[in-house]
Amino acid sequence: xxxxxxELDVRQxxxxxxxxxxxxxxxxxxxxxxxxVIATDKEAPKDxxxxxxxxxxxxxxxxxNAGEFIFLIRRR
Length: 76
Description:
The chain is of the alpha+beta class.
C-alpha cells in the first residue's frame, strides 16, 4: 500500500459510524492528503465506494485481509 497522512481505526464499529468518522477525519485534512481507514464492518467496501463517489473524494485502494478492510482515501 502507498503512504498516507493519517490513519483511522474503526474496527468493531458498524454502519454508519465508520463513514461518519471518516468524514470527520477527512474534513480536518488538507486537499490531496490521504487517509487510511481500517474497518471490520462487512458492508464497508460498498459503503466507502459510495461515500467517495458521492463526496468527490478519491478511493485510491481497497483491500481485504482476515476480516479487515483497509481503504486509502485522498481528500478532494
